[in-house]
Amino acid sequence: MTHRGALVNYASRITGDHAHAEDVVQEAYLRFDAVNSQSLEEPLSYLYRIVRNLALDGRRRTLWEQRHFTVNAEIQAGQVPADHPSPEAQAVGKAEMRAMYAAMQELPARSRVALEMHRFGGCKLKDIAAHLGISVGLAHALVVDGLEHCRARLCRTVSPGA
Question: Considering only 72-86, 102-116, 117-131, which range has the smallest mean pLDDT?
């Protein structure tokens, strides 16, 4: 306790942070206390060595964290866009869905079923062909035609002045 102030100042010069230096001195004292200090020739020198090593380790860890972790991550996390769309994006999305639904209603039944199975059901072309009783090539053509029709319809609906 006699040398606590000097040890904190010593550690503070290494760490660059007075609060961290106090933590270092506390940890050094705990480590020093665990050793049989009666057998040491220079206990104060040994204590300074512990403080120095702990302060340097802390300094290295701080520098490593600064290189590998983002500073002010909380602030940057607050700037990440929300998972939900803005009201404007929701309105546009709803309008596009209405246009898509209307475009799909214009398709012949087989084309609509093929497109729904492929895009919304995740079915493979061979499964669509088996379900509709057609060839795989025709199933592919129905899906492509359906997509082209919907794409053209959406471009006409969404584009201003079109």
Answer: 72-86
Helices (H), 16-135: 18-34, 43-68, 73-78, 87-106, 109-115, 125-132
* Structural domain count of the chain: 2
- Looking at residue 86, the DSSP 8-state letter turns out to be P
Residue 94 in domain: yes
Mean pLDDT computed over 129-140: 95
Q: pTM of the entire structure?
A: 0.45
- Tell me the angle at which helices 18-34 and 43-68 cross, rounded to the nearest 10 degrees: 130
In the structure, what pLDDT confidence band is assigned to residue 131 with cuts at 50, 70 and 90? Answer: very high
Per the structure, the complete domain to which residue 132 belongs is given by: 87-158
Amino acid identity, position 62: T
Residue 13 covered by a domain: yes
In this structure, are residues 48 and 7 in contact, taking their beta carbons and an 8 Å threshold?
yes
Mean per-residue pLDDT of the chain: 84
15 and 64 assigned to the same domain: yes
Tokens of 71: 């500073």
CATH number at residue 149: 1.10.10.10
99 burial type by CB count under 10 A (0-12 exposed, 13-18 middle, 19+ buried): middle
